[in-house]
Amino acid sequence: MISKEEVQHIAKLARLGLSDKEIEKNRKELSKILDYVEKLKEVDVSQIEPASHSVKVENVMREDESSGSKFPSSELIEMAPDKKDEFIKVKSIFGR
Amino acid sequence: MNPRTLTELTINQAHLGLKKKEFSALELCQAYLDKIKEKEKDIFAFLTVNQDLALSQAKEVDDGISSGKEISILAGLPSAIKDIILIENVRCTAGSKILENYIAPYDATVIKKLKEENAVFLGKTNLDEFAMGSSNENSAFGPTKNPHDLTRVPGGSSGGSAAAVAAQECLYALGSDTGGSIRLPASFCGVVGLKPTYGAVSRSGLIAFASSLDQIGPITKTVEDAKIVFDAIKGRDEMDSTSVEIKLKPKTYNLKSIRLGVPKEYFVKGLDPEIEKVIKSAIEKYEEMGAKIEEVSLPHTKYALPVYYIINPSEASANLARYDGIKYGLSIQEGKDLMDVYLKTKGEGFGEEVRRRIMLGTYSLSAGYYEAYYLRAQKVRNLVKQDFEKVFEKVDAILGPVSPVLPFKIGEKINDPLSMYLVDVYTAAINLVGLPALSLPCGKVGQLPVGLQIIGRSFEEDLILEIGKIFEKYASGNI
Q: Which residues on chain B are in Cβ contact (under 8 Å) with A90?
């Protein structure tokens, strides 16, 4: 079973606020699912290439030119919960 | 025409009725809106109903018809769209509190294409939050019910779309399929669902869940309808670099020259024996009609689902990082710094299953575990793919069940995530390998529908649709 510290570490990486009760619940549930996927350890993959996609994907290139904006930026800024003029406002990054 | 029978028409029938002026697009639209009013308190298939938009779209089509314009096949036909596909200026929630008040700023490419056809959009359908689930119970707004038995789930995650088609609350619907999310609800609700080949339909404007697996596809009353909608939405789109133009030439098929494979690994413990009976009898019918049936083997079948439940959460955890309470959507501005905004917004905005997948994905991708989980899963994914490639050298399509279980009771599996994941055992592998697959109603156990899965080679949607159509004709006694 994965430890409480591991769950807390993962939650922090994911920026997910979990209560103590949820951390305990996650320990149990994640462990059960991780046990289930353990099955993959049986497979010999030493000679196998990883597949990130089902189809072969290649980078699609184009000239680095602006094709014009579909919407005025003000419309998108308008969706932000906190803003000032043409800027999105956020809380301070470092504790004061 | 009696408004009650208006909602029974297929796409072609409704199109002809409009053309011959047997009824107007407004009457057709109103018949569906009335049906929605009548059924919604029981089914809850819709999160948003756009009555005004739908009626104005219908009126436009009527104006066109009365001025003598030719109308396209989907013109004036009322559709329902899974609420994870953007329609400009219409709310799009993805079934989540975090997007509860989000108004889409642009049209998804599939919506643009349907608008060019003058389609009518009745509304947005319910789904598991961010399409994560197999029962629709993970919707933040409450579960959709199965029209065949209101105590049971409609399947997920496109449960609202499938239930809406089954209850005649729309003529056709769009869903999205990441690990079975079109095929499973189609099977549970007794309607037709097509998951196209990865890349056949543009994903632009589909809220991203697991980008190497997601595809948009139709949920319809008949196979013919599925083909019409698929043809309308497919094609290369410069907004989705993984989308491609299908270059295969249309051909005519003769069932007698078609070889159908039945994987022995699909008929094992875990499959409901009642479902097995229905599926086997469907396969026998194909044999009676002259198809060659061959037993085939997909040896890595048992590893496909564990692979899926690493790849899927990994991609999801990356895709869902964007909901951070800063740019749009829910934002909980409590605490002293930015970190608090992230933790609270994501912690409270996401439901349980979404948080579980973010945790699982973040774990699989984190330093120290990446190779053991994510990279290993990608390698086994390749083996699963090779299995299918080998089988498709011998057969033209694969037949099997869509689901190992019948539509289950609401609440039955929701507290056991792993048992819910196991419902995807026959569908998730297909997304890993990108192939097209059709879910076709092929019988019932009691009053509960059973779906047959017909899996094809990449971009051979036309063949699996044709194979499905043959069964439909046979079942209705027209062969």
A: 326, 338, 341
CB of A61 less than 8 A from some CB of B: no
| Domain-located, residue A50 | no
Of the two residues A5 and B252, the one the predictor is more confident about is A5
Q: Cβ contacts of residue B164 below 8 Å, gap of 6+?
A: B43, B45, B46, B80, B125, B170, B173
Q: If we measure between CA atoms, which residue out of B131, B67, B83 comes closest to residue B354?
A: B131
Domain count for chain A: 1
The DSSP 8-state label assigned to residue B266 in this structure reads G
Rounded distance, CA B302 to CA B425, Å? Answer: 8
Nearest to B295 by CA among B263, B255, B256: B263
Q: What domain range includes position A29? A: 1-43
Cα dihedral angle (B91, B93, B99, B102), rounded to 10 degrees? -10
Chain A CB within 8 Å of residue B359 CB: yes
For the ranges A39-53, A69-83, B388-402, B423-437, which has the lowest average pLDDT?
A69-83
What number is the ipTM of this complex?
0.94
B314 is catalytic: no
Q: Label residue B49 by pLDDT band (50, 70, 90).
A: very high
pLDDT tens-digit series, residues B302-358: 999 999 999 999 999 999 999 999 999 999 998 889 999 999 999 999 999 999 999
Instruction: Using an 8 Å CB-CB cutoff, list chain B residues near A11.
Output: 359
Q: Flag whether A25 is in a domain.
A: yes
CA–CA separation, B440 and B473 (whole Å): 12
Q: How far apart are CA B72 and CA B49, in angstroms?
A: 24
**Domain B1-479 is in which class?**
alpha beta
- Respond yes or no: is residue B181 known to be catalytic: yes
Instruction: State the nearest Cα–Cα gap between B112 and chain A, in angstroms.
Output: 14
In a domain, A71, yes or no: no
**CATH code assigned at A37:** 1.10.20.60
Each residue's pLDDT tens digit, B226-260? 999 999 999 999 999 999 998 877 777 888 899 99
Q: How far is A16 from chain B (nearest CA, A)?
A: 5
